[in-house]
């Protein structure tokens, strides 16, 4: 299942989406490999345009690709922009994966998401649960695009022998996250809310939904390490989950964040906002079996993410 180790040494490695939270963490992690990192900004290259992607890739000739470019966002952004989450993501990944085949890229890692699993699949979510039931409605558009990406990698492997693999990360957080309250995921949103409430002396902080859904959170530097690990050590048709190993309720998450930030007030709940899927915890037995495990504890990761927020985003 693992195949021969793949060497990144002296390779031209393209991190598609290098400005995003995941892509930038992969770029930082690649500093420890002796490879040359290729990157294109959105100004230079619109990844939704097939011809532009083909021309750029033919020119720079990447040997290896981390496909971390995607339209991403939290539960409200997903629910409000179904067209972009479906179409832009399908276009981006189709352009890159099909061109990678055309120009003979040696290895490609596609990044999916734990929302590919059915809403009510058995927990922890095993890779075999894919397509065994209906998706969570709030993020079905994004999920369908990501499922298609997994299938594209498998299809190119089966038909042409391309070494294209996929990883399914759980909910991520860390440096470079999106802290905009309307489009962000819950963890950065609660950092902002707790910080603002502390600074303005508010007595309450509003949580969307009921606070009871359970989520697993992985520090993005850990994910980047897992991506490089998989690129070097895994080759196979099966996609692999990448998680932290345990989950918390949204209320518990809010308590940890409040503690780290220093907010001492109470929580109130906005029941007009959706809860989304009741639980998302990945079964990472297959990845752990290959020898990789997450190392950043949730509280320590939140402290680092808050520090990054204070240095880069607070007061903007
Ligand atoms: O992180 P999140 O936006 O997305 O929300 P999902 C997780 C949970 O936190 C939901 C609650 O139950 C939210 O209602 N929540 C509480 C909040 N307060 C807040 C808040 O202030 N902001 C936000 N954003 N949530 C996403 C998918 O699902 O997970 C994406 O929509 C992707 O497609 C991502 O897969 C990993 O975990 O529900």
What is this entry, summarized?
With 316 residues, this protein is α/β, with parallel strands linked by helices. It contains 10 helices and 13 strands.
Helix-strand makeup class:
alpha/beta
The ligands bound in this entry are: guanosine-5'-diphosphate-beta-L-fucopyranose
Main sheet?
A: 6 strands, parallel
Strand order of the largest sheet: 2-1-3-4-5-10
> Percent helix among the residues?
40-55%
Rounded to the nearest angstrom, the distance between the terminal CA atoms is: 48 Å
Overall description:
The protein has 316 residues and is an alpha/beta fold. Helices cover 41% and strands 15% of the residues. The chain has ten helices and 13 strands. It has helices at residues 21-30, 50-60, 75-80, 82-102, 140-160, 186-200, 220-233, 250-261, 285-290, 298-312, and strands at 12-16, 36-38, 64-67, 107-111, 164-169, 171-173, 204-208, 214-215, 217-219, 240-242, 248-249, 266-270, 279-280. Strands 2-1-3-4-5-10 form a six-stranded parallel β-sheet, with helices on both faces. Strands 11-8-13 form a three-stranded mixed β-sheet. It has a two-stranded parallel sheet with strand order 6-9. Helix 6 crosses helix 10 (298-312) and helix 8 packs across helix 10 (298-312). The longest helix has 21 residues, at 82-102. The model has no long low-confidence stretch (mean pLDDT 96). The structure holds guanosine-5'-diphosphate-beta-L-fucopyranose (GFB).
